[in-house]
Design goal:
With about 100 residues, the protein is an all-alpha fold. Helix content is about 65%, strand content about 0%. The protein contains 6 helices and no strands.
């Protein structure tokens, strides 16, 4: 079981991140931040808003997604592409394990 988790940690991470962003309310005010720039008192950050943008996109609001961060749409596309690649790799790996030489 632990070995299976270790082999698929990236797939688990991206799937959990997408599910968390889909379940989150993007209009809610955050209670805390881990942004180094915001903690230092700097209002501009290239990464802030990306999570909100993806969350808005997963809720179907493209205009709010673009307003939050213009990279939200390409970021979500890349995450979906990467998740698909990991699922494909896992399926190929499972198929090769079921192979029985004649």
């Amino acid at each position: 079981m632990i070995d299976l988790l270790k082999k698929n940690i990236e797939l688990i991470f991206w799937t959990a991140a997408i599910l968390a962003l889909a379940a989150a309310d993007p209009s809610a005010q955050p209670h805390y931040t881990i942004c180094v720039f915001k903690l230092a008192g700097i209002n501009w950050c290239p990464g802030c808003g990306l999570g909100h943008s993806i969350s808005w996109l997963l809720h179907g609001d493209i205009a709010a997604s673009l307003k939050a961060h213009w990279l939200g749409i390409p970021a979500l596309a890349i995450i979906f592409w990467r998740t698909g690649q990991l699922l494909k790799r896992m399926a190929i790996f499972k198929a090769s394990q079921n192979y029985e030489p004649s």
